[in-house]
Every structure is written in C-alpha cells, then in structure tokens.
Amino acid sequence: MDSEDPGADLPDWLRPVEQAARDIEASDLTRFVPPPGGDARRGAVLMLFGEGPQGGELLLTERAHDMRSHPGQVSFPGGSVDPGEDVVEAALREAKEEVGVDPSSVTVFGRLPELWLPPSNFAVTPILGWWSAPTEVSVVSRAEVHAIHHVPLAELVDPEHRVTVQMPMGDYRSPGFLIGPDHDVILWGFTGGIIARLLDFLGWAVPWDESRVRDLPSYMFTGRERRAAALLDIDDDQRRGGAR
Fold it and tell me: By the 8 A CB rule, do 87 and 4 touch?
C-alpha cells in the first residue's frame, strides 16, 4: 500500500481528481460538517478508481436487499474507524473485508474533506485510491453485499443515466444514477451525492433532465415507520415538497 503521494503514477484522466482533492472544500460537497467539539463517530470510505474496457471506473458495492439498515443501497466500501486505526487504514480494511480488495494493490493519492451524516452522527472521510494493480474481488459476505459494480465514469456522466430519486412516501428527492449491466440499479443518497458533487466540481457533469423521476424500489425499505429524515445524506440541494 502506498501512502498518499501527490507524485503517484496516476493515469492522465485521474489527475484532475488528484488536483480536486487538494482544492475542494467540504462546502463544495455538503452543508453538513462535523460540529466543533462534537462526539461524532469516525468513519471512512474508499473511492477506488480503476481502469476498465470503457476507461476510468469506480468500484461500488450494493448492500444486501434484506439488511435492516439501508437495504440495497449502493455505496463505497467503508465503515467505522476502529481503535488504533487512521482513516486510510480503515477504508482499506473495510474494502478487503467486504469484497476482498488487496490493500497492497491500491495507491492512495488523496482524500476528500470530512463529511457529516447528522442522523447517524458519523463523520466520514472519503479516501481516494488508484487501483494500480487490480486484483480479483468477490462478495465476501452475502449477508452484507448483494453485488459488486465496476461503474464506468463515462456512464456516470452520461445524462441518460441521471435521474431524480424520489422516496415513495414523504417528499424527499435526491440526484441519482442508474448503474449496473441493465442500468436498473439506483445509486443515490450519500454515495450518489458525493459523486454528483465531485463531477460538478471537476466540470465533468453534463446537463441532464432533472424532471425524470424514479421512485426507490420497495426492497430499499424495512417498513413505513422509517422516517425520511433518517436517510438525509450529503446532497446539498435536497428539497422537500418540490424538485431540487
């Protein structure tokens, strides 16, 4: 595993992301930052960039559909920072535990600002990694991970794969992406917000039809008692009772 190294041997297409990590501020991604002196739990996620048949891509996981918390949610590998770990170590450990990513195959080249999820009181640091020597990955635990997605950046930028996500109850809306082999898997929430905001900051985003609305599938809900507020994420432009 390489430590964060601005001089890492990155492909040219990834250089703007490296620069963005130096320039971006939390306010470019969200209005939620950990309050000073707070007791937020620390977490980390791994934004792992690789290169596939269509060029640059991101590694994402789809949570098991029967989990009690956020079933079916698409996310970066990640989780809580354990005692004695830093955020880089935590992100790499979680990626190994969830889908078998070999930490030695990852070059860490930066990080995004720490972001706060108020409902769960998590302060999450996205770690940027370049998969310089990709290794085979697979679902380690079916109880936690339903599928692994290697999502081309070209598809995330394509306006045909952008949607506004709407919860079937309540009035929460969020920018989203359609991913997967059949583009029928909805990427939204915290992870979708990071990606959407980063694409905007990089100048890579392409105008898309924000009136194209998709409801979340029923398997993403554990019951109607779940409040929409429990799903607040880093989307800074969320609107209640109207389009974003």
Answer: no
Token pair belonging to 208: 């898309």
Q: What's the pTM value of the predicted model, to 2 decimals?
A: 0.85
Residue type, 179: I
* Segment 164-222, tens digit of pLDDT: 998 766 677 788 999 999 999 999 988 999 999 999 999 999 999 999 999 888 777 65
Of 81, 83, 63, 84, nearest to 73 (Cα)? 63
Give the pLDDT confidence score for residue 230 in this predicted structure: 36
54: left (phi over 0), alpha (psi -120 to 50) or beta: alpha
Q: Secondary structure of the chain in the HEC alphabet?
A: CECCCCCCCCCHHHHHHHHHHHHCCHHHCCCCCCCCCCCCEEEEEEEEEEEECCEEEEEEEEECCCCCCCCCCEECCEEECCCCCCHHHHHHHHHHHHHCCCHHHEEEEEECCCEEECCCCEEEEEEEEEECCCCCCCCCCCCCEEEEEEEEHHHHHCHHHEEEEECCCCCEEEEEEEECCCCCEEECHHHHHHHHHHHHHHCCCCCCCCCCEEECCHHHCCCCCCCHHHHCCCCCCCCECCCC
Q: What is the pLDDT of residue 200?
A: 96
Q: Is the distance from CB of 98 to CB of 77 less than 8 angstroms?
A: yes
Nearest alpha carbon to residue 200 among 13, 15, 24 = 24
